[in-house]
Amino acid sequence: MTAVIKRGVVKGLTVTLELAKIVVPVYILVTFLKYTPVLGYIAKTAQPLMKLVGLPGEASVAIVLGYFTNLYAAIGAIASLNLSSKETTIIATMLLIAHSLPMETAVSKKVGVSGLAMVTIRVALSVAAGAVLNLVM
User: Fold this and answer.
1) Long-range contacts of 61-69 (CB under 8 A, 24+ apart)
2) Contact 74, 99 (CB under 8 A)
3) Between these two residues, 90 and 76, which has the higher pLDDT value?
4) Model's pTM, two decimal places?
5) Distance (Å, rounded) from C-alpha 1 to C-alpha 7?
6) pLDDT tens digit sequence for 8-23
């Protein structure tokens, strides 16, 4: 029993450290960007689409990170933003529908699914879900 607990603690700490390697740097980067004109520019550019789904423009950074890298990078970005529970629910739903697109598209292509169709459908459904949640919440 002691060996099982020890192995579980070691595996748990290993996973935590691996996730921290992604989340912490992204959190620091997005926090840093909040104090520069860069995030303001990104937010202003993305504001029309973000307004459709009920999110502030700054949330576009988290969405892009989630779409193109992974959910852990997006979580780091989301954690550095001051989002309401409604906004957090919307962005989480959008990212659950469409995340890690390059990697998952490559896997989909291996099984014979069109990569372009897969990305188009997932991103469109992601935005549609965000828009619907914005209206009903």
Assistant:
1) 61/30, 61/33, 62/30, 62/91, 62/95, 63/91, 63/94, 63/95, 65/26, 66/94, 66/95, 66/98, 66/99, 66/100, 67/95, 67/98, 67/99, 67/100, 67/101, 67/123, 68/100, 68/101, 68/102, 69/100
2) yes
3) 90
4) 0.79
5) 10
6) 999 999 988 887 887 7
